[in-house]
Amino acid sequence: MKRWKSIDTTAVCRRGMTMVELMVSLVIFAVVIGVVFGFLTESRRSYSSTRQKAQYQQGLRAVMSLVTREVRSAGADPSPISPGFERIPVAGANTLRCRMDLNGDTDTNDVNPDEDVTYTYDPDTDELSRQVGAGAAVVVMRDLTSFGFNYYDDQGNLLANVPLNATDRAEVAAIDLVMGGETHEHETVNYTTRIAMRNN
Question: H or E segment at 160?
């Protein structure tokens, strides 16, 4: 009868990794870690950039909403005994002054509600400021790369000779507000809106 020889399996189990196998494993591990780390870094950068752009856009929209509301109110005069006033005393490429009598007290000197507002863009500092009456100007937006006003009559014709004279200012029926900026990640953001004057 044939006898089977037993095999010593402990020798196979005790066999470790060779230096080549260890090096290959380490290289594969390093590549996987590098890919994962790169993905996480890019995801974080993309999230930060998107978040910053969204915040900047929100700031631009808030300023645009404020300017739009006040430009539309220019010339508001509910008082029947008002002596009258010029609704747009200043109309330049980067400066606009609006006057209104919101509380019907026959003057445009009140604050809260603000009845005499001037917006001025300074291209040297890239800042937009807002001034109420004779008060101090307050910066409402920074890091603007462009800001301007375009004026149109009731036929849609551009009134190009800015700053407008008194005759042209009386003809203004709509104003284009053009705003542009750049985030810290150098992404450009631009907005343009046409504001129809309510009180001509």
Answer: none
Q: What does the DSSP assignment read for 102-156? A: SS-SS-S--TTTT-EEEEEEETTTTEEEEEETTS--EEEE-SEEEEEEEEE-TT-
Please give the structure tokens belonging to residue 12: 């196979």
Structure confidence by residue, pLDDT tens digits, 68-92: 999 999 998 887 776 678 999 999 9
CB contact at 8 A, 154 and 173:
yes
Q: Which position has the token pair 């609006």?
A: 98
- For residues 191 and 59, give the distance between their C-alpha atoms in angstroms, rounded to a whole number: 11
State yes or no: cis peptide before 123, omega within 30 of 0: no
Q: Which among 12-16, 132-136, 182-186 has the top mean pLDDT?
A: 132-136
Q: Would you say the pTM of this structure is higher than 0.90? A: no
Could you identify the residue written with the tokens 């000779």?
Answer: 161
Beta-bridged to residue 95, according to DSSP, are 120
Q: Are 181 and 56 in contact (CB under 8 A)?
A: yes
Which tokens belong to 100? Answer: 């209104």
* Cα–Cα dist 114/3, whole Å: 109
SS3 state of residue 9: coil
∠ at Cα 51 (48, 57), nearest 5°? Answer: 140
- Rounded to 5 degrees, φ, ψ at 70 are -75, -35
